[in-house]
TrEMBL record:
PANTHER family: GLYOXALASE DOMAIN-CONTAINING PROTEIN 5, GLYOXALASE FAMILY PROTEIN. This is VOC family protein. Keywords: Metal-binding. The keyword Transcription regulation does not apply. Residues 5-110 form the VOC domain. Pfam families: Glyoxalase. Gene3D superfamilies: 2,3-Dihydroxybiphenyl 1,2-Dioxygenase, domain 1. SUPFAM superfamilies: Glyoxalase/Bleomycin resistance protein/Dihydroxybiphenyl dioxygenase. CDD domains: GLOD5.
Amino acid sequence: MPLQGFDHVVLTVADIDATIAFYVDALGMEPVTFGGGRRALAFGRNKINLHRAGQEFEPKALRPTPGSADLCLVTDDALETVIARLAAHGVPIEEGPVDRTGALGPIRSV
């Protein structure tokens, strides 16, 4: 069974509106509403579905907890451009730039 990638990822969050505002403003994702008013974020061919903690949709993770996921997003922009955009939106960089091993090989990350 050769897998080809993700269809979507689900993030459990404390505040869906605040989450959408961050990902739209700081990272340029597109907000999406689908199936009965559910909310998500789209970018490229990818989608992040959002569940509000305590009001998750079924099926869900066994112990959904806000902030319990790490995402590594890839861009063609120069790392300096990414750092400047994050700074412009008041997003602190916790670590980096650092070398990491990505899904397809070595990457530089913040």
